[in-house]
Every structure is written in structure tokens, then in C-alpha cells.
């Protein structure tokens, strides 16, 4: 089994395992939440396709639902994006880790 190691040496003279790096625990939940957005995205695409077909027949009944869906999705993804930016800014740079 291969273990990826990087930066700062431990007491045995080995670099710290990448999965045990403090930044990994801070960023992994963020990455996993990003994958959760695929499903609402797929649903939104299907809903937009349905609306496009209905609009071709001059049926605008889905407009309020699509508007609400996309507004909610925009807020959710934007809020997550801001959280990601804060999480990344809190991760110490590799230079700071190496120097410490």
C-alpha cells in the first residue's frame, strides 16, 4: 500500500501523511458537499427541459416553480461558495507549514 506524504517531518523523520494533514479535515467536508449539488443540478436541468417543451406550446404554468427552484438553488450554491472561500483562507499555506 502506498501512502502519500508531504511537507513537515514527524518525530520519525517521515513527512506527514497527506490524509492526516490538518487542512484535509477542513476541506474534505467542503468537497463532499460540492458533490451533493450534482443532484439538484440534474433536477434543475430536467425541469428546464420540461419548461422548454411547455413554452413551445405556450404553456407558462411552470415558470413560477422554475423561478423558485433556481432562486433557491442559487442561494444554496452561493452560500456554500462563500463557506468554501472562508475554509480555504483558513488553511495555512504550505510555506507556513514547512517553516513551522
From TrEMBL:
InterPro entries: ACOX_C_alpha1 (IPR055060), AcylCo_DH-like_C (IPR036250)
Domain Acyl-CoA oxidase C-alpha1 per the UniProt entry, residue ranges: 2-84
GO MF annotations, alphabetized: oxidoreductase activity, acting on the CH-CH group of donors
Protein name stated in the entry: Acyl-CoA oxidase C-alpha1 domain-containing protein
Source organism of the structure: Rhizopogon vinicolor AM-OR11-026
Amino acid at each position: 500500500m502506498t501512502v502519500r506524504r508531504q511537507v513537515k517531518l514527524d518525530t520519525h523523520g517521515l513527512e506527514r501523511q497527506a490524509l492526516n494533514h490538518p487542512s484535509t479535515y477542513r476541506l474534505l467536508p467542503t468537497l463532499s458537499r460540492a458533490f451533493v449539488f450534482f443532484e439538484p443540478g440534474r433536477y434543475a436541468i430536467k425541469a428546464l427541459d420540461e419548461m422548454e417543451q411547455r413554452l413551445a406550446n405556450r404553456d407558462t404554468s411552470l415558470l413560477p416553480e422554475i423561478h423558485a427552484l433556481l432562486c433557491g438553488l442559487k442561494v444554496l450554491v452561493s452560500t456554500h461558495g462563500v463557506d468554501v472561500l472562508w475554509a480555504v483562507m483558513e488553511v495555512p499555506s504550505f510555506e507556513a507549514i514547512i517553516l513551522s
